[in-house]
Amino acid sequence: xxxxxxxxxxxxxxxxxxxxxxxxxxxxxxxxxxxxxxxxxxxxxxxxxxxxxxxxxxxxxxxxxxxxxxxxxxxxxxxxxxxxxxxxxxxxxxxxxxxxxxxxxxxxxxxxxxxxxxxxxxxxxxxxxxxxxxxxxxxxxxxxxxxxxxxxxxxxxxxxxxxxxxxxxxxxxxxxxxxxxxxxxxxxxxxxxxxxxxxxxxxxxxxxxxxxxxxxxxxxxxxxxxxxxxxxxxxxxxxxxxxxxxxxxxxxxxxxxxxxxxxxxxxxxxxxxxxxxxxxxxxxxxxxxxxxxxxxxxxxxxxxxxxxxxxxxxxxxxxxxxxxxxxxxxxxxxxxxxxxxxxxxxxxxxxxxxxxxxxxxxxxxxxxxxxxxxxxxxxxxxxxxxxxxxxxxxxxxxxxxxxxxxxxxxxxxxxxxxxxxxxxxxxxxxxxxxxxxxxx
Length: 440
What we know:
With 440 residues, the chain is an alpha/beta fold. The protein has helices at residues 32-44, 84-87, 128-143, 171-183, 201-214, 239-247, 264-268, 276-283, 287-320, 323-326, 329-371, 373-378; strands at 49-61, 64-70, 77-82, 99-108, 115-124, 161-166, 188-193, 220-225, 252-256, 271-272, 381-386, 403-407, 412-416, 437-439. The strands form three sheets. A five-stranded mixed barrel has the order 1-2-3-5-4. Strands 7-6-8-9-10 form a five-stranded parallel β-sheet, with helices on both faces. The protein has a four-stranded antiparallel β-sheet with strand order 13-12-11-14. It starts with 31 loop residues before the first helix and ends with a strand.
């Protein structure tokens, strides 16, 4: 393959192995790597340039940054990379949306054919100092507790009147009205117009805020503005406005700019909405959703009540089917039979006990009678005792002519002793009392 040398660039030596387009043919094409080397040789002859634009992409990978810059006039973009060693020397607050100037140097990767710019320096343009002041103010207000979630007020579920602060005849006003009325047709607004940028923005917004905050029928206040560059949104980061919102007694919703916009008003407001449309959707409930929710809750309540009633009816039927409730007299009948059986058994046991005791009593009475002195006297025996009551136990106690009283089975009589006779009574003739008992 023939080697073709490109025309040298003034002041620069031509690449050693470069190719010019006219020197390649279908019969003698050049290689991809050689073409890429040629392109890289031309690109390396360029020096570093300063370029201005907006950061639209900022991806951090392994300590290196890969992003894109956009021209806000023509929307042209370029890719850039920042090595980790360079990134350490750049401002730490660089992010998507920042307007910056960067010192870049073109580079072309031979292996992949990718064209990129390496960044050696980057800084904010115009708003750099103001953005730094805002960040310092943000840190100060955060330390004072103005951004704490605990101090934020809860929004009403259904506001009677919504206070709206926005620019006159602005798209933000139309968006809020349209979306709020679509969700709840009876919603009412009290609108205060204020400049949304420039020197009049802060004082007019504060005046409108105070007026709506003092109105007793206003339940929530929305501060709305469409998107814009950071310069036009500076008024909504003013310390005076931020502190006025923090001291308001009515809940305040911030709806400034788009999703990427982040003024200080967003941090201090009770609710931050990404857009005016989002503010309307988050402040006003959807009547269709609420009706559907009510219908769902009614259905759930009806189902629960029906289930509870059916359960109670089933339990009642189960109780009614029990024998005790189906025929309550059966309990009394069965118990009556049992009581009658127990009464009969008790009577039998009492009668048997009485009979046994009566028999025992008769036996004791017979035994007592058999052992009684009266029984002995009734068989013909007698007890003799002297006039002083001494029972005569020995014939020697009643000498001749002694007066004695003799007790027999029926009564007593007096007798006169004739003295001791020859016959002596048997010891068996003594009674249980120890007296002398003699047969008559």
